[in-house]
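User: Let's play a game. I give you a shape written as tokens, and you guess the letters that built it. Ready? Here's round one.
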């Protein structure tokens, strides 16, 4: 069982994502919005990489969409995942993002990850 690296990553995906979300939450409290978005993106990309067993070097919106569709993920969740990734990436490079928008992004990422925890490969 300890030799199954992929299985362990899939099992720990949620725990690791929660740790990264906690980091984003601490940045949110300190009003460091750029770091909030960076931490949210690391959480989402890492979670998807571990959950879908896709190496980080091969992560793309297309690969994520295909893998999620292959495991019968509802299209609405797939669309939300891609939208959150796009929003976080856009916000990182857009000046003047507010605390409210960072908090909204944080809540959206948390909600999506909770929904995806129940999806089994």
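Assistant: Ready! My guess for every position:
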């Amino acid at each position: 069982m300890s030799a199954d690296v992929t299985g362990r990553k899939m099992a720990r995906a949620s725990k690791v994502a929660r740790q990264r979300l906690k980091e984003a939450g601490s940045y949110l409290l300190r009003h460091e919005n750029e770091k909030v978005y960076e931490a949210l993106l690391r959480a989402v990309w890492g979670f998807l990489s571990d959950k879908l067993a896709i190496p980080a070097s091969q992560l793309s919106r297309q690969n994520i969409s295909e893998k999620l569709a292959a495991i019968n993920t509802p299209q609405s969740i797939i669309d939300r995942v891609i939208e959150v990734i796009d929003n976080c990436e856009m916000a990182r490079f857009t000046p003047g993002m507010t605390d409210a928008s960072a908090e909204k992004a944080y809540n959206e990422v948390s909600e999506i990850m909770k929904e995806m925890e129940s999806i089994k490969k």
